[in-house]
Amino acid sequence: MAAQDAPDLVDELLAGKHRALARTITRIENRSPGYRDLVAALYPHTGNADVVGITGSPGSGKSTLVDKMAKAYRDRGLTVGVIAVDPSSPFTGGAVLGDRIRMASTATDMDVFFRSMSARGSLGGLSTATTDAVKALDAFGKDKIIIETVGAGQNEVDVVKTADTVAVLVPPSSGDDVQMLKAGILEIGDVFVVNKADLAGSDKTVTELKNMLEMREGEAGDWDPEVVETIANTGEGVTEFLDVLDAHADWLDESGRREAKRHQRHAEELRNLLREDASELVEDELDARGGIDELVERIDAGETTPYDIADDVIEPLADCLDQQRD
Q1: I need a labelling partner for 183 at 20 to 30 A (CA). Which of 145, 167, 168, 289 fits?
Q2: What is the reported pLDDT for 113?
Q3: Under a CB-based contact definition with an 8 Å cutoff, are residues 60 and 195 in contact?
Q4: Nearest Cα residue to 171 out of 140, 138, 209, 135
Q5: How many CA atoms lie within 13 A of 209 on its CB side?
Q6: What does the alpha-carbon distance between residue 12 and residue 6 come to, in Å, rounded to a whole number?
Q7: Which of 25, 62, 229 has the alpha carbon at shortest distance from 148?
Q8: Exposed, middle or buried, 324 (CB in 10 Å: 0-12/13-18/19+)?
Q9: Domain limits at 13?
Q10: Radius of gyration of the chain (CA)
Q11: pLDDT tens digit string along 293-315?
Q12: Residue 283 belongs to a domain
């Protein structure tokens, strides 16, 4: 993207043009030249949307529930943006399922913007591009932004860094899925949803979740996670679920935790950007020294060690930073 195109694209996005929103997210996802200037220009217009993360194991019905959530929000007169993070293609890095049509209830509603994005191999299930796409939807003026994650299990804790409220879907089962939650995802959930509550085992799953949450350590004044039941296929329980999400949003505002979350989010974003930039600088330095393969051959030959090479590569970069501080 040419630098001069960025202001026009930002103006069109802020004017509510959906095509500009789609183009912006495409440039963000592709990391096109100038995308950082684009995101930076959107920054002052963010901070108004309520961001909800939907995570959980594969097959728990996330997509169906998100569809019904979007419809319910629209019935309340709210605009909605949905980002569905798909598994990355091992060949292209793009979303395997692409921009598939799965928002059946709102497929013709222009006030529901759906975008499928690639996780790009992120261990936490979310890429930096996803976080920036949320900013685009926020600046556009969407009232509610829903992030539906890959469903890769406990590693998906990154969703908590982007969402204001995190809902974890748990299908009725023999209890194995609930026990797995102990590994990490239990700690990030603000709301736990036993979806497909019409299936056998749902009552047991609800009881086990409540028992586990009672043992979860928290500080005075913390939000007490709630367990709700839904049947996403029919929409049953969705209204009650949204009421709990609204209650958590109110708690965030009243307790001051929303601002604290925003502070943590900005800190994490800054760290990620610095890591990306530092990694690119190191890669450039490695290329200047003959490339990684040539350096590794010296290690293979016993001429040096990875530690010595790392010190040699970092030393000039560290010196430059020292000179800047002086």
Answers
A1: 145
A2: 95
A3: yes
A4: 209
A5: 31
A6: 10
A7: 62
A8: exposed
A9: 1-45
A10: 22
A11: 999 999 999 999 999 999 999 99
A12: yes
Site of tokens 């501080």: 325
State the pLDDT at residue 118. 77
pTM for the model? 0.87
Residue 188's Cα: distance from chain center in Å? Answer: 13
Amino acid at 18: H
* The token pair that represents 142 in the structure block: 């969407």
Regarding whether 16 and 67 lie in a shared domain, the answer is no
Which amino acid is it at 215?
A: M
The answer to whether 84 and 63 are in contact (CB under 8 A) is yes
Residue 191's SS3 state is strand
Strand 80-86 to strand 144-148: parallel, antiparallel, or no bridges (unpaired)? parallel
pLDDT of residue 154: 45
How many domains, the chain? 3
Amino acid at 246: D
- Beta pairing class for 144-148 and 112-118: unpaired
C-beta atoms surrounding 66 within 10 Å: 25
In DSSP terms, 236 is beta-bridged to 231
Q: Is residue 4 part of a domain?
A: yes
213 in Cβ contact with 221 (< 8 Å): no
| Edge-to-edge strand list for the sheet holding 226-229 | 112-118, 80-86, 144-148, 50-56, 165-170, 191-194, 226-229
H-assigned helices in 83-162: 128-140, 159-162
Mean pLDDT score of the chain: 86
Mark the ranges of the chain whose per-residue pLDDT is less than 70: 1-5, 87-103, 119-126, 151-157, 174-184
In this structure, the strands spanning 50-56 and 226-229 are: unpaired
